[in-house]
Design goal:
Distance between the termini: 60 Å
Number of strands: 22
Number of domains: 2
CATH class of the largest domain: Alpha Beta
Radius of gyration: 26 Å
CATH architecture of the largest domain: 3-Layer(aba) Sandwich
CATH superfamily of the largest domain: P-loop containing nucleotide triphosphate hydrolases
Largest sheet: 7 strands, antiparallel
CATH topology of the largest domain: Rossmann fold
Strand content: 25-35%
Strand order of the largest sheet: 21-20-14-11-12-13-22
Helix content: 25-40%
Length: 386
């Protein structure tokens, strides 16, 4: 196992800054995911760790030792690339055995070690075949076996499932998680697929334009996003963002939208203190609500405060339906059960889960506050906010 630490690491390619002041620590035996959109700097981060690139600033440590000037061969880290890079003219056995033969290990030791990892990945029956005769999932297992066979200090994986179909990706996600738990080794996994990151990782670093936006457990990244970018990258569909006016009148503090309103309860409320200190400089905030934290009603409910809206379009997806709803001046997305049907232009009523409402800075996108309890914000109907 290896502990990997990046301290103020910056990497530039000409005028382009691929990574900016990265500070991360990846713990022994951790399944660590780096999640971000294309161009975020994810692959560059892996290449720096393995030694294929050198940082322009900062230091990379492996088990407490700086490795900026250590050759990739001597870092003892295995990397699995997206294109797998198997030798087409060699059998599966020879592909897996290649790193051991490079180390000039005895033939019997190579045979035993290849057989061991082949059994672990359930590919022992494929050892005499060549890559051209394998399915995508089988080729993926061979690439993983080739990395496992040398028992490195850590494994780096660069979007290894990106070229597989949906069913194979699901199968390989389960297999990779099982394998990492069985080996108890450090694994750094790069992906642009939030489902992969959320389902497999112990911790996730969300990367955007070369900057780490948040590094935390999957639950915290999802439920307490650090900013608007994280809330957009994690979640499908992403969080709805609604610009609200901040109004303080007659000792009351309200967040006012054209389709709804919230009242901050009590002057001892943390959000009250935060916004009142910022007034009058801050006139607007972003209210963020995830599609699954919104409920649609065909008739006005009597047990919750709901806001009038209108259906714009409905997208049935089998297990769920995504409904686009016109709420005031904005379109929001709502996830509903497949048993609920809403027609285009149908009048509906929208209710928020008040325990899961986020308030964000409209300029920086940083999360100012997450309610956490429904009594902290009170719904008020449009026209009653003043």
């Amino acid at each position: 196992m290896a502990n990997i630490r990046l301290e103020n690491v910056t990497k530039r390619f000409g005028r382009v800054t691929a990574l900016q002041s990265i500070n991360l620590e990846i713990h022994h035996g951790e399944f660590f995911c780096v999640l971000g959109p294309p161009g975020a700097g994810k692959t560059t981060l892996l290449r720096l760790i393995v030694g294929l690139e050198k940082p322009d600033a900062g230091t990379i440590y492996i088990d407490g030792e700086p490795v900026n000037d250590v050759h990739p061969r001597n870092r003892d880290i295995a990397m699995i690339f997206q294109n797998l890079a198997l030798y087409p003219d060699k059998t599966v056995f020879d592909n897996i055995a290649f790193p051991l033969r490079e180390r000039k290990l005895p033939a019997e030791q190579i045979k035993a070690r290849v057989a061991q990892v082949a059994r672990m990945l359930h590919i022992e029956h494929l050892l005499e075949r060549k890559p051209g005769k394998l399915s995508g999932g089988e080729r993926q297992r061979v690439a993983i076996a080739r990395a496992l066979v040398r028992t490195p200090r850590a494994y780096l994986m660069d979007e290894p499932l990106a070229n597989l179909d949906a069913l194979l990706r699901l199968e390989m996600r389960i297999e990779l998680k099982r394998l990492q738990e069985q080996l108890n080794e450090t694994l750094v996994y790069v992906t642009s697929d939030q489902v992969e990151a959320m389902s497999m990782a112990d911790r996730i670093a969300v990367l955007y334009k070369g900057v780490v936006q948040q590094c935390d457990t999957p639950d915290n990244v999802y439920n307490l996003p650090a900013n608007r970018r994280v809330a957009t990258i994690v979640g499908s569909p992403p969080m709805n963002f609604l610009t609200c006016q901040v109004q303080r009148t007659d000792g009351q503090l309200n967040l006012v939208h054209s389709g709804f309103g919230f009242r901050v309860i009590g002057s001892d409320h943390p959000l009250w203190d935060c916004l009142c200190r910022a007034l009058p400089a801050v006139q607007e905030v972003l209210v963020g609500v995830r599609p699954e934290d919104i409920r649609l009603y065909p008739e006005q409910p009597t047990d919750v405060i709901a806001f009038p809206a209108r259906v714009a379009v409905s997208e049935p997806l089998g297990a769920e339906t995504i409904v686009d709803v016109q709420l005031g001046r904005d379109i929001i997305k709502v996830i509903t059960p497949p048993t609920q049907y809403f027609a285009e232009k149908q009048p509906v009523w929208v209710a928020f889960d008040m325990a899961k409402v986020h308030v964000m800075d409209v300029q920086t996108g940083a999360r100012i506050y997450t309610t956490g309890a429904p009594e902290q914000l009170q719904c008020i109907l449009p026209g009653t906010c003043a």
